[in-house]
Amino acid sequence: MKTRTLGLLALCLATAGAVQAQSPDATRALNLLNSLMRPAAPAALQAAPAAGRATDMLQLLQQSLDQIDEPREIEIGRQLAAVLLGSKPLHADMKVQRYLNQLGRWISLQSARPQLPWSFAVLDDAGYNAFAAPGGYVFVTRGLLERVGSEAELAGILAHEIIHVTGRHHLKAMQAKARAGLLTQAVGSQLNNNLGGAVSAQLLALGRNLYASGLDQGDEFDADRNGVALAARAGFDPYGLVTALQQLRTATPDDPLFALSLSTHPPAQQRLDQLTQAMGDRLAALGGKPPVPLAQRLSR
Hints:
Layout: H1 16-20, H2 24-36, H3 43-47, H4 50-61, H5 70-87, H6 94-109, E1 119-123, E2 130-133, E3 137-141, H7 142-147, H8 151-166, H9 169-179, H10 185-190, H11 195-213, H12 217-233, H13 239-249, H14 259-263, H15 268-279, H16 282-285, H17 294-298
Helix pairs in contact: 2-5, 4-11, 5-11, 6-8, 8-12, 8-13, 12-13, 12-15, 13-15
């Protein structure tokens, strides 16, 4: 992998309404991120009131995906990042955070949308999982880092999440849920008709529902297929993701460390079968590099 000097972390702050709806721990995490970098929100979004932005997002989610431009996509992602930061704190090891950000940013530069403000961070959670949000926000858990056997495995997982972002898979899922009636006036009534708080809470509820239920199986298979190719373009062994899926195949649904990952993704064997069918002998042609143990990379 080519080494590049990148920023410490590139996560942006959530909107004021989303932050208010988060726990004190989430607010502290967002404040930490703010101290590490300048916010990257487009000027037009920074100037608009938080409630107005959130209302606009809800209206767009119930219409056509083509109407959500990149600045709005990044804004939605910022609010969903607040959902993830509200559930788990950031891992305290800044060396690990720097490493993940460098690795993720390098892979994202090989993607179809290198211009996004890509941001990568580790959540302090023992479970095995990875998450993404629109606009270029990618999170992995401490438990995942502790269980991957090589840098190629981690690169394959990050590439999978990057494809979710470039394919706008989360936006599609949010639109489907919004049109199905998840956004209700009940949330507003619980907040004493506070419009700004209501729309922020609705977006947060939509995000929590999305991460609890997972994406469409077709989008997961697409992220696997294209993630393998993306990892290879970035210089990593494409079998990294395959190895990670083989580990998932041995996990059981009653294992709390793997329960969420297994419940929000298709069965690992089915994903492996889909990869074999899609790639065939081409998968072998992409390989050829020995795996680098993650501990070895972090010790440098």
